[in-house]
Protein backbone atom coordinates (compact mmCIF):
# COMPACT_ATOMS: atom_id res chain seq x y z
CA UNK A 1 0.00 0.00 0.00
CA UNK A 2 1.23 3.48 -0.84
CA UNK A 3 1.51 5.79 2.17
CA UNK A 4 2.89 8.84 0.37
CA UNK A 5 -0.56 10.47 0.33
CA UNK A 6 -2.00 11.82 3.54
CA UNK A 7 -5.61 11.68 2.39
CA UNK A 8 -7.15 8.21 2.73
CA UNK A 9 -7.69 6.40 -0.54
CA UNK A 10 -10.96 4.50 -0.41
CA UNK A 11 -12.91 2.34 -2.77
CA UNK A 12 -16.51 1.38 -2.17
CA UNK A 13 -18.70 -1.38 -3.52
CA UNK A 14 -22.18 -2.64 -2.74
CA UNK A 15 -22.50 -6.18 -1.49
CA UNK A 16 -24.78 -8.73 -3.10
CA UNK A 17 -27.10 -8.86 -0.10
CA UNK A 18 -28.91 -5.72 1.07
CA UNK A 19 -29.91 -4.69 4.57
CA UNK A 20 -33.65 -4.74 5.13
CA UNK A 21 -33.72 -0.94 5.36
CA UNK A 22 -30.64 -0.01 3.36
CA UNK A 23 -27.67 -1.28 1.42
CA UNK A 24 -24.48 -2.76 2.74
CA UNK A 25 -21.18 -1.58 1.29
CA UNK A 26 -17.49 -2.32 1.58
CA UNK A 27 -14.88 0.43 1.84
CA UNK A 28 -11.15 -0.21 1.42
CA UNK A 29 -9.03 2.30 3.36
CA UNK A 30 -5.39 2.81 2.39
CA UNK A 31 -4.30 3.51 5.96
CA UNK A 32 -5.85 3.48 9.43
CA UNK A 33 -9.38 3.56 10.78
CA UNK A 34 -9.72 5.57 14.00
CA UNK A 35 -12.75 4.94 16.21
CA UNK A 36 -13.81 8.10 18.02
CA UNK A 37 -13.54 11.81 17.20
CA UNK A 38 -12.58 13.01 20.65
CA UNK A 39 -9.23 14.63 21.53
CA UNK A 40 -7.32 11.33 21.27
CA UNK A 41 -8.84 10.44 17.91
CA UNK A 42 -8.05 13.86 16.47
CA UNK A 43 -4.49 13.71 17.80
CA UNK A 44 -3.94 10.23 16.34
CA UNK A 45 -5.19 11.39 12.93
CA UNK A 46 -2.96 14.48 12.91
CA UNK A 47 0.15 12.53 13.95
CA UNK A 48 -0.48 9.82 11.35
CA UNK A 49 -0.93 12.49 8.70
CA UNK A 50 2.42 14.05 9.64
CA UNK A 51 4.02 10.64 9.05
CA UNK A 52 2.36 10.35 5.65
CA UNK A 53 -0.15 7.72 6.78
CA UNK A 54 -3.76 8.46 5.81
CA UNK A 55 -6.66 7.73 8.13
CA UNK A 56 -10.38 8.16 8.55
CA UNK A 57 -12.26 8.73 11.81
CA UNK A 58 -15.55 7.00 12.55
CA UNK A 59 -17.71 8.82 15.11
CA UNK A 60 -21.09 7.60 16.36
CA UNK A 61 -22.29 11.10 17.29
CA UNK A 62 -22.84 14.21 15.17
CA UNK A 63 -19.76 16.23 16.12
CA UNK A 64 -16.20 16.07 17.35
CA UNK A 65 -15.66 15.84 21.13
CA UNK A 66 -19.29 14.83 21.63
CA UNK A 67 -18.75 14.18 25.33
CA UNK A 68 -17.59 17.77 25.82
CA UNK A 69 -20.26 19.23 23.57
CA UNK A 70 -23.30 17.25 24.72
CA UNK A 71 -22.61 15.76 28.15
CA UNK A 72 -20.85 18.37 30.28
CA UNK A 73 -22.07 21.16 32.54
CA UNK A 74 -21.70 24.82 31.64
CA UNK A 75 -19.16 25.86 34.29
CA UNK A 76 -16.70 23.08 33.41
CA UNK A 77 -13.08 24.04 32.89
CA UNK A 78 -10.01 21.92 32.35
CA UNK A 79 -8.84 20.78 35.77
CA UNK A 80 -5.25 20.60 34.51
CA UNK A 81 -3.26 23.50 33.01
CA UNK A 82 -3.54 23.90 29.25
CA UNK A 83 0.13 22.98 28.79
CA UNK A 84 -0.72 19.42 29.88
CA UNK A 85 -3.88 19.17 27.77
CA UNK A 86 -2.81 20.51 24.38
CA UNK A 87 -2.76 18.08 21.47
CA UNK A 88 0.40 17.27 19.48
CA UNK A 89 1.63 19.72 16.85
CA UNK A 90 -0.66 22.59 17.88
CA UNK A 91 -0.54 24.44 21.25
CA UNK A 92 -3.40 26.34 22.85
CA UNK A 93 -3.66 30.03 21.90
CA UNK A 94 -1.45 32.16 24.14
CA UNK A 95 -4.39 34.35 25.19
CA UNK A 96 -6.29 31.38 26.66
CA UNK A 97 -6.29 31.26 30.47
CA UNK A 98 -4.32 28.66 32.39
CA UNK A 99 -7.46 26.54 32.78
CA UNK A 100 -9.53 26.96 29.59
CA UNK A 101 -13.30 26.88 29.74
CA UNK A 102 -15.48 24.26 28.12
CA UNK A 103 -16.28 26.54 25.19
CA UNK A 104 -12.61 27.45 24.70
CA UNK A 105 -11.55 23.80 24.70
CA UNK A 106 -14.20 22.87 22.13
CA UNK A 107 -13.14 25.82 19.96
CA UNK A 108 -9.52 24.67 20.21
CA UNK A 109 -10.47 21.15 19.06
CA UNK A 110 -12.52 22.48 16.14
CA UNK A 111 -9.57 24.64 15.06
CA UNK A 112 -7.29 21.62 15.39
CA UNK A 113 -9.51 19.54 13.10
CA UNK A 114 -9.60 22.31 10.48
CA UNK A 115 -5.84 22.84 10.61
CA UNK A 116 -5.08 19.20 9.85
CA UNK A 117 -7.98 18.68 7.44
CA UNK A 118 -9.66 16.11 9.69
CA UNK A 119 -13.19 15.31 8.53
CA UNK A 120 -14.69 12.50 10.61
CA UNK A 121 -17.51 10.28 9.35
CA UNK A 122 -20.26 11.29 11.78
CA UNK A 123 -23.26 9.23 12.88
CA UNK A 124 -21.49 5.96 12.15
CA UNK A 125 -21.44 3.49 15.02
CA UNK A 126 -18.78 0.80 15.01
CA UNK A 127 -20.42 -2.53 15.81
CA UNK A 128 -17.46 -4.88 15.37
CA UNK A 129 -13.77 -4.97 14.50
CA UNK A 130 -11.83 -8.12 13.76
CA UNK A 131 -8.49 -8.99 12.23
CA UNK A 132 -8.73 -11.13 9.09
CA UNK A 133 -5.62 -13.31 9.16
CA UNK A 134 -6.26 -14.64 5.67
CA UNK A 135 -5.61 -11.25 4.09
CA UNK A 136 -3.69 -9.58 6.93
CA UNK A 137 -6.17 -6.71 7.27
CA UNK A 138 -8.74 -5.40 9.73
CA UNK A 139 -12.46 -5.48 9.03
CA UNK A 140 -14.42 -2.77 10.83
CA UNK A 141 -18.21 -2.94 10.65
CA UNK A 142 -20.42 0.10 11.17
CA UNK A 143 -24.08 1.03 11.05
CA UNK A 144 -25.73 4.40 10.54
CA UNK A 145 -29.46 5.03 10.87
CA UNK A 146 -31.66 7.96 9.92
CA UNK A 147 -35.32 8.59 10.64
CA UNK A 148 -36.94 9.57 7.33
CA UNK A 149 -40.36 11.14 7.03
CA UNK A 150 -42.54 9.17 4.62
CA UNK A 151 -46.18 8.89 3.70
CA UNK A 152 -47.99 6.16 5.58
CA UNK A 153 -51.57 5.69 4.43
CA UNK A 154 -53.22 9.08 4.38
CA UNK A 155 -50.85 10.67 6.89
CA UNK A 156 -47.16 11.10 7.52
CA UNK A 157 -45.02 8.61 9.42
CA UNK A 158 -41.41 7.82 10.13
CA UNK A 159 -39.39 5.03 8.61
CA UNK A 160 -35.95 4.08 9.90
CA UNK A 161 -33.31 3.71 7.22
CA UNK A 162 -30.13 1.95 8.30
CA UNK A 163 -26.98 1.43 6.29
CA UNK A 164 -24.19 -0.98 7.11
CA UNK A 165 -20.60 -0.61 6.01
CA UNK A 166 -17.46 -2.65 6.32
CA UNK A 167 -14.13 -0.84 6.29
CA UNK A 168 -11.07 -2.88 5.37
CA UNK A 169 -7.79 -1.36 6.59
CA UNK A 170 -4.27 -2.08 7.81
CA UNK A 171 -4.59 -0.56 11.27
CA UNK A 172 -7.31 0.23 13.81
CA UNK A 173 -6.94 2.90 16.50
CA UNK A 174 -9.52 2.77 19.31
CA UNK A 175 -10.02 6.25 20.77
CA UNK A 176 -13.44 5.91 22.40
CA UNK A 177 -12.45 7.37 25.77
CA UNK A 178 -12.89 6.08 29.31
CA UNK A 179 -16.06 8.01 30.21
CA UNK A 180 -18.09 7.56 27.04
CA UNK A 181 -20.80 5.38 28.59
CA UNK A 182 -23.24 6.65 31.20
CA UNK A 183 -23.24 4.66 34.45
CA UNK A 184 -26.48 4.96 36.43
CA UNK A 185 -26.49 3.19 39.82
CA UNK A 186 -29.50 1.19 40.89
CA UNK A 187 -31.22 2.95 43.78
CA UNK A 188 -34.08 1.23 45.53
CA UNK A 189 -37.23 3.33 45.60
CA UNK A 190 -36.03 5.94 43.10
CA UNK A 191 -39.11 5.33 40.94
CA UNK A 192 -41.25 6.58 43.84
CA UNK A 193 -39.30 9.83 44.17
CA UNK A 194 -41.45 12.74 42.99
CA UNK A 195 -38.58 15.11 42.20
CA UNK A 196 -36.21 15.26 39.25
CA UNK A 197 -33.47 12.64 38.91
CA UNK A 198 -30.68 13.97 36.68
CA UNK A 199 -27.43 12.29 35.67
CA UNK A 200 -24.45 14.64 35.42
CA UNK A 201 -24.30 14.08 31.65
CA UNK A 202 -27.65 15.89 31.44
CA UNK A 203 -26.89 18.53 34.09
CA UNK A 204 -26.08 21.96 32.65
CA UNK A 205 -26.36 24.36 35.56
CA UNK A 206 -27.97 24.76 38.96
CA UNK A 207 -30.43 27.38 37.73
CA UNK A 208 -33.39 24.98 37.74
CA UNK A 209 -32.61 23.99 41.36
CA UNK A 210 -32.54 27.48 42.87
CA UNK A 211 -33.82 27.37 46.46
CA UNK A 212 -34.20 23.58 46.40
CA UNK A 213 -32.53 20.83 48.37
CA UNK A 214 -30.48 18.62 46.08
CA UNK A 215 -28.81 15.30 46.85
CA UNK A 216 -25.63 14.70 44.82
CA UNK A 217 -24.68 11.02 44.63
CA UNK A 218 -20.95 10.62 44.04
CA UNK A 219 -17.92 12.49 45.35
CA UNK A 220 -15.63 12.51 42.33
CA UNK A 221 -14.55 15.61 40.46
CA UNK A 222 -17.95 15.98 38.77
CA UNK A 223 -19.97 15.50 41.96
CA UNK A 224 -17.84 17.97 43.88
CA UNK A 225 -18.01 20.62 41.18
CA UNK A 226 -21.76 20.17 40.69
CA UNK A 227 -22.17 20.90 44.42
CA UNK A 228 -20.19 24.11 43.97
CA UNK A 229 -22.30 25.06 40.96
CA UNK A 230 -25.54 24.39 42.86
CA UNK A 231 -24.36 26.68 45.65
CA UNK A 232 -23.67 29.47 43.16
CA UNK A 233 -27.33 29.28 42.05
CA UNK A 234 -28.74 29.35 45.57
CA UNK A 235 -29.53 25.65 45.90
CA UNK A 236 -28.89 23.64 49.08
CA UNK A 237 -26.85 20.59 48.08
CA UNK A 238 -25.91 17.55 50.12
CA UNK A 239 -23.41 15.00 48.87
CA UNK A 240 -23.31 11.23 49.41
CA UNK A 241 -19.81 9.86 49.86
CA UNK A 242 -19.81 6.07 49.55
CA UNK A 243 -16.10 5.35 49.42
CA UNK A 244 -12.79 6.79 50.51
CA UNK A 245 -11.56 9.70 48.43
CA UNK A 246 -8.39 11.73 47.94
CA UNK A 247 -9.00 15.47 47.72
CA UNK A 248 -6.06 17.66 46.71
CA UNK A 249 -5.94 21.42 46.12
CA UNK A 250 -5.83 22.32 42.44
CA UNK A 251 -2.59 24.22 43.03
CA UNK A 252 0.29 23.91 45.48
CA UNK A 253 3.28 26.22 46.02
CA UNK A 254 2.15 28.40 43.12
CA UNK A 255 2.08 25.50 40.66
CA UNK A 256 -0.63 23.14 39.51
CA UNK A 257 -0.76 20.02 41.67
CA UNK A 258 -0.46 17.87 38.55
CA UNK A 259 2.55 19.79 37.25
CA UNK A 260 4.24 19.68 40.64
CA UNK A 261 3.62 15.93 40.87
CA UNK A 262 5.10 15.26 37.43
CA UNK A 263 8.19 17.32 38.30
CA UNK A 264 8.73 15.57 41.63
CA UNK A 265 8.37 12.14 40.02
CA UNK A 266 11.47 12.87 37.96
CA UNK A 267 13.55 12.84 41.13
CA UNK A 268 11.65 10.93 43.82
CA UNK A 269 9.85 7.59 44.12
CA UNK A 270 6.08 7.71 43.90
CA UNK A 271 5.56 6.90 47.58
CA UNK A 272 7.58 9.91 48.67
CA UNK A 273 5.77 12.16 46.22
CA UNK A 274 2.44 10.94 47.57
CA UNK A 275 3.51 11.69 51.14
CA UNK A 276 4.64 15.17 50.14
CA UNK A 277 1.35 15.88 48.33
CA UNK A 278 -0.70 14.71 51.31
CA UNK A 279 1.35 16.86 53.70
CA UNK A 280 0.83 19.95 51.56
CA UNK A 281 -2.87 19.13 51.20
CA UNK A 282 -3.23 18.93 54.97
CA UNK A 283 -1.53 22.32 55.32
CA UNK A 284 -3.65 23.96 52.59
CA UNK A 285 -7.14 22.48 52.96
CA UNK A 286 -6.86 20.95 56.44
CA UNK A 287 -7.97 17.60 57.82
CA UNK A 288 -10.80 16.51 55.54
CA UNK A 289 -11.70 13.58 57.81
CA UNK A 290 -13.41 16.15 60.05
CA UNK A 291 -15.71 16.89 57.12
CA UNK A 292 -16.72 13.25 56.68
CA UNK A 293 -14.22 12.56 53.90
CA UNK A 294 -11.89 9.62 54.56
CA UNK A 295 -8.69 9.24 52.55
CA UNK A 296 -7.67 5.84 51.13
CA UNK A 297 -4.69 4.13 52.76
CA UNK A 298 -2.85 4.20 49.44
CA UNK A 299 -1.46 7.51 48.18
CA UNK A 300 -3.24 9.43 45.38
CA UNK A 301 -0.69 8.77 42.63
CA UNK A 302 -0.24 5.10 43.52
CA UNK A 303 -4.01 4.66 43.62
CA UNK A 304 -4.36 6.27 40.19
CA UNK A 305 -1.66 4.02 38.74
CA UNK A 306 -3.08 0.80 40.16
CA UNK A 307 -6.86 1.36 39.94
CA UNK A 308 -7.37 4.33 37.60
CA UNK A 309 -9.22 6.22 40.33
CA UNK A 310 -8.47 9.93 39.92
CA UNK A 311 -8.04 12.17 42.97
CA UNK A 312 -10.41 15.10 43.31
CA UNK A 313 -8.81 18.45 42.53
CA UNK A 314 -10.68 20.93 44.67
CA UNK A 315 -11.82 24.08 42.87
CA UNK A 316 -13.74 25.53 45.81
CA UNK A 317 -16.07 22.84 47.16
CA UNK A 318 -14.14 22.06 50.37
CA UNK A 319 -14.62 25.60 51.76
CA UNK A 320 -18.35 25.25 50.99
CA UNK A 321 -18.49 21.97 52.91
CA UNK A 322 -16.59 23.55 55.81
CA UNK A 323 -18.97 26.53 55.90
CA UNK A 324 -22.03 24.28 55.82
CA UNK A 325 -23.28 25.37 52.40
CA UNK A 326 -22.75 21.77 51.25
CA UNK A 327 -23.83 19.09 53.70
TrEMBL record:
Its EC number is 1.-.-.-. Coiled coil: none annotated. It catalyses: indole-3-pyruvate + NADPH + O2 + H(+) = (indol-3-yl)acetate + CO2 + NADP(+) + H2O. The keyword Flavoprotein applies. Keywords: Auxin biosynthesis, FAD, Flavoprotein, Monooxygenase, NADP, Oxidoreductase. It comes from the Eukaryota. Residues 11-22 have a biased composition (Low complexity). Its cofactor is FAD. Residues 1-22 are annotated as: Disordered. Pathway: Plant hormone metabolism; auxin biosynthesis. The keyword NADP applies. It is an enzyme of class 1 (oxidoreductase). InterPro entries: Auxin_biosynth/cation_transpt (IPR050982), FAD/NAD-bd_sf (IPR036188), Flavin_mOase-like (IPR020946). One of its GO terms (biological process) is auxin biosynthetic process. It holds the Pfam family FMO-like. GO terms for molecular function: flavin adenine dinucleotide binding; indole-3-pyruvate monooxygenase activity; N,N-dimethylaniline monooxygenase activity; NADP binding. Belongs to the FMO family. PANTHER family: FLAVIN-BINDING MONOOXYGENASE-LIKE PROTEIN (AFU_ORTHOLOGUE AFUA_4G09220), INDOLE-3-PYRUVATE MONOOXYGENASE YUCCA6. This is Flavin-containing monooxygenase. It comes from Kalanchoe fedtschenkoi (Lavender scallops).
Amino acid sequence: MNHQHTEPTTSSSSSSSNHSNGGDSNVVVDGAVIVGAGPSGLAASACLKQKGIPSIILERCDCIASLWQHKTYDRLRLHLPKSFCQLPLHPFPSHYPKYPSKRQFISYLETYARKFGIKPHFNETVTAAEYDETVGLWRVKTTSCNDDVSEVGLGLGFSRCCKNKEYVCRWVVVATGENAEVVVPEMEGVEEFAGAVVHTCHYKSGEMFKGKRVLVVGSGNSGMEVCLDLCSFGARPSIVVRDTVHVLPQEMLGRSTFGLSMWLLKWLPIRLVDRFLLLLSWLIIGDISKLGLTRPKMGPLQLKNLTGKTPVLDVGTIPKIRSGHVQ
